[in-house]
Specification:
mainly beta, 4-stranded antiparallel β-sheet, 0% helix, 58% strand, elongated
Length: 69
């Protein structure tokens, strides 16, 4: 199971049209000890950076639903 601890998106003040194509670049910067961090950048068709985002998650094993008897 993966649970989001927080997520943020920063808009950099450049005007953009959400109906136009955008490039979203995502990377997992760290995943260890049950936690993960991902960052992303969003570019418009002109190659301008219009937003940045990040998300931190916690990962846990799903508990078994089998009987313990």
């Amino acid at each position: 199971m993966t649970y989001s601890l927080n997520h943020t998106i920063y808009f950099h003040g450049r005007p953009f049209n959400a109906n136009e194509w955008m490039l979203i670049e995502l990377e997992s910067t760290n995943a260890a000890h049950g936690r993960g961090l991902a960052r992303g950048r969003i570019w418009n068709e002109q190659g301008e950076l219009i937003a940045s985002c990040s998300q931190e998650v916690v990962v846990r094993n799903k508990e078994s639903k089998t009987s313990k008897l």
